[in-house]
Design goal:
The chain is mostly helical. About 55% of the residues lie in helices and about 5% in strands. The protein has a domain of about 70 residues. This is Retinol dehydrogenase 2-like.
Length: about 150
């Protein structure tokens, strides 16, 4: 999510920051022989992707919303069903990430960036090079359609 903003604005902002900081640090530390690498994992099963926690947090927030917002949001059912679909797509093999870490730490010539997981390599990385209009159109398919006009 440090290359494309697909969900969770705050989360993506933090990942963009890590990318920028790492790039700056890599340039600044190069003169000291220090190599800085970025590992860009795809969608893996972790605590942040735990659908039970996400659903529990969603319902906690949902219950605090004003009734007029709840009425215009179709009960949030699309969000919950999207969570269930996403649960089926995450990767459970964290060794793909740790193998990247190992290579970055032990290689004489580590890469600047490592993409771990098929989605990072075949989806997020290529999309990050496409025009924003294309990625916006693609990612908007996953967002709920607005019911009324503001």
């Amino acid at each position: 999510m440090g290359r494309v903003s697909f969900f969770g604005g705050g989360y993506c902002i933090s990942k963009y920051g890590v990318e920028a900081f790492s790039d700056s640090l890599r340039l600044e530390m190069n003169k000291f022989g220090v190599k800085v690498c970025v590992i860009e994992p795809g969608y893996f099963k972790t605590m942040i992707t735990n659908t039970d926690n996400l659903e529990k947090n969603f319902h906690s927030i949902w219950n605090k919303l004003p009734e007029e917002i709840k009425a215009s949001s179709h009960g949030g059912s699309q969000f919950v069903s999207t969570l269930k679909v996403m649960e089926k797509t995450y990767n459970t093999d964290l060794s793909l990430v740790t193998n990247c870490m190992e290579h970055a730490l032990t290689s004489l010539h580590p890469r600047y960036r490592y993409s771990a997981g098929w989605d990072a390599k075949l989806l997020y990385l290529p999309i990050s090079y496409l025009p924003s209009a294309f990625s916006d159109a693609l990612f908007s398919l996953f967002y709920p359609k607005s019911v009324g006009k503001a």
